[in-house]
Specification:
By secondary structure, the protein is α+β, with helices and mostly antiparallel strands. The chain folds into two domains: 104 residues, no CATH class; 96 residues, Immunoglobulin-like, CATH 2.60.40. Helix content is 43%, strand content 21%. It has six helices and eight strands, in the order H-H-H-H-H-H-E-E-E-E-E-E-E-E. The strands form two sheets. It has a four-stranded antiparallel β-sheet with strand order 1-2-3-6, covered by helices on one side. A four-stranded antiparallel β-sheet has the order 5-4-7-8, with no helix packed on it.
Length: 249
Amino acid sequence: MNRHGSDVHGLAAPYALDALDPGERAEFAAHLTACEACRQDVADFLATAARLAASAARAAPDPMKQRTLAAVDHVRQLPLRVSADAPVPWRGVLRRKVLPMALAASLVAAASFAGLAAWEHQEKQRLEQRARRSEQHVDAVGGVLAAPDVRTVHGRAANGALTSVVFSDLRNRAVFTASGLPAPPRGKTYQLWLDHDGTMRPAGFIRRDGTVVLDGDTAGATAVGLTLEPAAGSPQPTAVPLLLMALPA
């Protein structure tokens, strides 16, 4: 198995499905002793193949099972007969035994690879969606930061988090950043608000340290608030604000 190091890792799936020749299998088995990543890959492939096989398997009907078990007691086992003049056709016996086993293994391998291909397709779609959301987020933040009238205010929340708001009247948008934000209690989340003439309007959530673009119109808003709310959010603040940061006119 003359392979580059990166190629060896690609043998995890055929190893798990017993599709390597003896030499490759022995060398890859030796590789597994020093490669935690491949050991995890093999375990994952084995688990996937087992789930696929279990989902396709069907139990024998009870009447058939009972008839088979009842017949076993009445069937006499034939003695082994070996003739010196008629050698046992081992090749034919092996062919009759091995071919069905190989076919079954091929079907399981095909089902496993089909399942893995479907999983890889779903994973690719999920990663692409995440990449698109990240790109949209970067574009939205960059649009505010590049505005000609951009302004920034800083504050500190009651729980010690350092915060800042970058906003633009021309863009009618604002970006909120938090650093040192403690994890919210179980069942709670941090909700942002825009204060419009004393009316607090929901402006999105921030669940951990980082940067978010506020929802809603920032034009005319006099302050940005931060409260701890139920995980699903609230239409109005239900707790004393952890932060109420004034926005200059």
